[in-house]
Every structure is written in structure tokens, then in C-alpha cells.
Amino acid sequence: MKRITYSRAKSLLRYAPYTGRLYWLVQKGRCAAGSEAGTISARGEYYARKVHIDGHKYSVGQIAWLLMTRRHALGIVDFRNDNPLDTRWSNLVLTDFSGRNRHASLRKTNKTGVPDVHYWRGKWRARIAINGERKWLGYFNTKQAGMVARRRATPPR
Hints:
Elements: H1 6-12, E1 13-16, E2 21-24, E3 39-43, E4 46-53, E5 56-59, H2 60-69, E6 76-79, E7 92-95, H3 97-101, E8 117-120, E9 123-130, E10 133-140, H4 143-153
Antiparallel strand pairs: 1-2, 3-4, 4-5, 6-7, 8-9, 9-10
């Protein structure tokens, strides 16, 4: 996929960093110049604002990052307050895949209520994944001890 260039994005869109809104500078189909760009796209329980440019779909966060830094994001544009509809510049942060999953909700199959802590062969086992690599934290007599180990191993956001 050929990515949009900074000059192409700047010729089509204006980003308001304090509100997080994108506005069309030119008329695009039924969208008038000056109107807000993008539509809210739903994928399961995840909502995000997407904009279509030259046959490709981009998140508003990606375009905002491009317009503010003049570079494509080298990673995933994430949201400090975990709200993908809040695309204010102060809310955008660059992360990797494991950083984005750090605040994901628990799986429906999780029976302990704690990520990566589970009961196995009479003990509580804890692990963590950092940058795609799993690290086993050990076996514990209590769930609380496993939770403490998991919390201590979690890198700061």
C-alpha cells in the first residue's frame, strides 16, 4: 500500500490540534470544503474515526501525526485516555503493539480477573509479554502473589 505523503495530506486536510478534528480544504464527493473529514468506523466494541483518501483508509490519528510531525508514525498511534475518538494532539502517543495491548480488556475466557495470571497444577502461574516476547515470572502459592509479580513486571506507560 502506497502511503499518503505529507504534501498530499496538507493539500487536502487541516488538523485542529486542540480539538482533534480534521477538516477538508477541498470538496471531496459529497463533503464540502470546510466540513469535518472522516466517519466513525466500528469494529466490534472498538470505534475509531477513519478518513478515505485516494482509495485508502487512514485513521485520524495517523493523519494528525503526519500533519503535525511531517513524518509517518513509526509505530502505532495510540490514545493516552484510551478513547480512540479523542484525537487531540495532547492525547496522541506513539507506541508498539504490546504497548497498545497493555490496556486491552480481559478476554471473556479469563476466569481469574487478572491478565496473564492463571491456576495451573496446584499453583498460580504468572507471565508477561514485552515487545512480543513472553517472560515467565514464576509459580506462586496465592493468586495475590502472582498478581503482585505481574504488576511489578509491567513497564510504565
